[in-house]
Amino acid sequence: MSEATRDVSRWRSVWRQLPLLVGLLVLWLLLWDHIDVLTVVTGVLLAVGVTRALYLPPVLLSGRFNPWRGLLLGLRMMYDVTVASLQVAAFSLWPWWKPVNSIIAVQLHTRSDLVTTLTAEATSVVPGTVVVDIDRERGLLYLHALGTRTQSDIDRTYRHVLGTEERIVLAIGTREQAEVVRAERRARRLSGTKHVSRPHGRDPGTSDGPSQNGGAS
Q1: What is the pLDDT of residue 8?
Q2: Which of 33, 42, 101, 175 is the right S-S partner for 209, CB 3.0 to 4.6 Å?
Q3: Alpha carbon separation from 83 to 50, 69, 70, 77, 143 (Å, rounded)
Q4: Chain centroid to CA 82: how far?
Q5: Neighbour count for residue 213 (Cβ, 10 Å)
Q6: Which among 190, 189, 197 has a CA at the least distance from the CA of 213?
Q7: Minimal CA–CA distance to 56: which of 101, 109, 17?
Q8: Torsion sign (Cα): 117, 120, 123, 126
Q9: Which helix (H) or strand (E) is 135 found in, with range?
Q10: In which region does residue 128 sit, left (phi positive, over 0), alpha (psi from -120 to 50) or beta (all else)?
Q11: What pLDDT is stored for residue 12 in this prediction?
Q12: To which H or E segment does residue 14 belong?
């Protein structure tokens, strides 16, 4: 690799990390509750130190943001949280309702740490579902889902997680990731199946209901 190519790759890496550095700097300034030269300089040094010195997987940002897809993602999140909150509230007030919960394994379409983290956070924000474990190597999310009495309930939860991942990828993912989720969506529509299968490996089980696997390859 030539020196010029290495310089371009280095600057591209810095550019992709820039939003993370800015976010850490803003967090530092909010913690101090005032802005001056010293806090800004120390915040920049701390942000660079956190991203460079600590042993963490690199957060690779795509450098791409689709405003329309981002708006749709935000609106869908608000809708899901509102509907799920009403459902959970109704269940808690219904005296004859007996919950049947499950641990569902969902195979994501991408292996991006950022997309996996955002999908897990967005899933856990919605009442009734919470991510309890992540298999980073295989791209699996294990989540505890409320009210999964039938296979159709499990399939619906599975599709909801994949839909969340798809909306996140289309908003901020790379073009390659966007093509992957679009191809998966077209395949599901053409096949007419629910794209549900069982993952390899140990079933984590559950203490309050039968353990169910929502899918993996």
Answers
A1: 53
A2: 101
A3: 38, 21, 20, 10, 19
A4: 19
A5: 22
A6: 197
A7: 17
A8: negative
A9: strand 129-135
A10: left
A11: 64
A12: helix 3-32
How far is residue 166's CA from residue 186's CA, in Å, rounded to a whole number? 12
Beta carbons within 10 angstroms of residue 91's beta carbon? 15
Give the whole-angstrom CA distance, residue 167 versus residue 65. 12
Distances (CA, A) of 121 to 22, 136, 143, 185, 216: 21, 15, 11, 22, 20
Comparing CA positions, the residue from 200, 166, 157 lying closest to residue 184 is: 166
Where does residue 139 fall: left (phi above 0), alpha (psi -120 to 50 degrees), or beta otherwise? left
Q: The tokens of 78 are what?
A: 């608000």
Name residues of the chain where pLDDT drops below 70.
1-16, 55-63, 192-217
* pTM over cut 0.85: no
Where do the structural domains in the chain lie, given as residue ranges? 3-53, 67-191
Amino acid identity of residue 92, one-letter, is: S
